Amino acid sequence: MRVCVGTTVHHPEDARITHRQIRALLDAGHEVTFVAPFTHCNVTPRPGIRAVDVPRAVGLRRGKALRAATTALRRAARDADLLLVHDIELLLALPRSRPPTVWDVHEDTIGALRAKSYLPGPLRTVLSPLVRAVEGHAERRLHLILAEESHRERFPGPHPVVPDHTYVPSMPPPPPGDSRVVYVGHISPARGAAEMVEIARRLRPHGIRLDLIGPADPAVRPMLRDAQRAGLLDWFGYVPNNHALRMAEGALAGLSLLHDVPNYRASTPTKVVEYMARGIPVVTTPLPRAASLVGRVDCGTIVSFGDVGAVADAVVRAVLRLREDPDRRAAMGARGYVEALNHYNWPAVAGEFVALLERWAKAPGTVAAMTPGRTVPA
Questions:
Q1: DSSP 233-271
Q2: For residue 193, which of 107, 115, 90, 299 has the smallest C-alpha distance?
Q3: Are 302 and 294 in contact (CB under 8 A)?
Q4: For residue 213, what are the β-bridge partners?
Q5: The domains spanning 2-165+346-362 and 180-343 adopt the same CATH topology
Q6: pTM over 0.85
Q7: Apex CA 89: angle with CA 83 and CA 94, to 5°?
């Protein structure tokens, strides 16, 4: 099977797209053409794929990226058996003549609009009904894959859920240490950027450093650079997911301080599962799914929402309690690892994901996705 995968929004080393889905396709012996912003992100395409470079869609200036993607997808999809796109913007760039096409729904697009600081308020109001119209059109015309069960509220059809699981090491990772706290993922105001800088400031006198591993929104980069220059934290910028998680191993705690905004409210943060997979105790805000998972497994601490100072104070107390009790943090890390290995391991999902695409590629027209309500099992 020849699969054309496209994104202009996501990083070419995005964990879900590249490290999970494309890797699963390659491991199954399929050919992959990947349309992505390699040059913009300073990424060398990985061996085994046919790479097509396009500009990245950033902020309000997305016209150039969309025009380039339209041309790239038209050419790349000519000899493809299946087209798999990951951005809602690319639904506007689909070639008229194309193979069976799949949209992988990563997030609540309208909810995400509210967290994008570069969008003026009136524009968000205008965009919301347009997004709904595009989503509705896509549901009628394309195959959909959902990353979360919660997306069924927007897409009630019989669409399969391919959960955003992670690779869990077959051998238990090292136990949590006592000298550093980590955050892995994109850094933005709604993901707790200000809180993490304040946490780093308050942990420094205790000899505990904060490692931030991931790219950051332009609005918070000056704050992070200032904090790094002051010696409060280490900000590594973008690191491929597999390397980032190896860097995180042995940390005292992993932070997930997402704010209470619509785009996060109904989802399980991937970073929570990633920390568990690496045996790291989790410190999370009380988003329902994150709190339910961490609380049920007893693999971390749940802190309340609040202003920057209140959240920082709660996190610092939780971190210091973990440092004072090595047996407790080791037990939390071990419980998280076992839960991730048994229920959140991507290889358990990868085979059925590939089989799903293979079935769609063989169907000449739109077919039922799977049995209604079916979730790809973990």
A1: EEE-----HHHHHHHHTT-SEEEE---S-HHHHTS--HH
A2: 115
A3: yes
A4: 184
A5: yes
A6: yes
A7: 40
215, two tokens: 């790219």
Q: Name which CATH class applies to 2-165+346-362.
A: alpha beta
* Chain centroid, CA 90 distance in Å: 18
Q: Please give the structure tokens belonging to residue 171.
A: 């051998």
DSSP state of 1: -
Higher per-residue confidence, 358 vs 378: 358
Mean pLDDT of 50-68: 84
Enumerate the β-bridge partners of residue 284: 256, 302
- Residue 328 exposed, middle or buried by CB count within 10 Å (0-12, 13-18, 19+): middle
**What confidence tens digit (pLDDT) does each residue in 199-234 have?**
999 999 999 999 999 999 999 999 999 999 999 999
Rounded average pLDDT over 315-329: 98
The fold adopted by the segment(s) 180-343 is Rossmann fold (3.40.50)
**In whole angstroms, what separates CA 92 from the centre of its chain?**
23
The burial class, CB within 10 Å (0-12 / 13-18 / 19+), for 85 is buried
Q: Where are the domains of the chain?
A: 2-165+346-362, 180-343
Q: Which residues in 345-378 are b (16+ Cβ under 10 Å) and which e?
A: bbebbbebbbebbbebbeeeeeeebbeeeeebee
Nearest to 211 by CA among 255, 273, 269, 174: 255
